[in-house]
Amino acid sequence: MATKRISTKKKAGNAKGAGALMIDIGISANERAKIAKGLSKLLADSYALYLMTHNFHWNVTGPQFNSLHQMFMAQYTEQWTALDLIAERIRALGHPAPGTYQEFEKLASVKQVEGVPSATEMVRYLVKAQEATAKTARSLFPVVGEANDQPTADLLTQRLEVHEKTAWMLRSVLED
Predict the structure, then answer these.
(1) Are 143 and 31 in contact (CB under 8 A)?
(2) Helices (H), strands (E): how many in the chain?
(3) Cα–Cα distance measured from residue 97 to residue 11, given in angstroms and rounded to the nearest whole number
(4) pTM of the predicted model, to two decimals?
């Protein structure tokens, strides 16, 4: 019985470690780098949003306490899972995922809130943060489309659906 040999060609230059293999998934190294850079910004915005939402979950007060406390918990729990999906996609493209507060602060368009705002202000901050994160995700589509990167496009579509729906739900809380 003949066995088929699998090529284990090593990539020069960018490979890490003695056993690193060249990435050959049909997306060029340059395109992967551009996508990973954009996903790193999305990861940073997503982490900032996660942290803001969890902070507000802990600190919300007032007549809407119970409903907002529960809503914020559902949102930060979903966001926590998304962080891993985004980071793993960056890694699958052959790049390190940012993972420190310093890196996230440099990359994020979502800025943290000082102090403890009122419940209504918390909701307003979260609407803006959800919308900002959606814009970051949407901004990646041109490079992802050019690279024919369907897995990243799928991830972005899923994230956009969540952020846009969550922003709508939060805006609805503010209506009279």
Answers:
(1) yes
(2) 6, 0
(3) 20
(4) 0.88
Please check whether residue 138 is in contact with residue 108, taking contact to mean a CB–CB distance below 8 angstroms. Answer: no
CB atoms within 10 A of CB 86: 23
**Number of residues that this document lists for the chain:** 176
- Integer angstrom CA distances of residue 154 from 73, 85, 144, 151, 159: 25, 11, 10, 5, 9
**2-59 pLDDT tens trace:** 555 544 444 434 445 556 678 889 999 999 999 999 999 999 999 999 999 999 999 9
Q: Residue 55 burial (CB < 10 Å; 0-12/13-18/19+)?
A: middle
**Sign of the alpha-carbon torsion through 167, 168, 169, 174:** positive
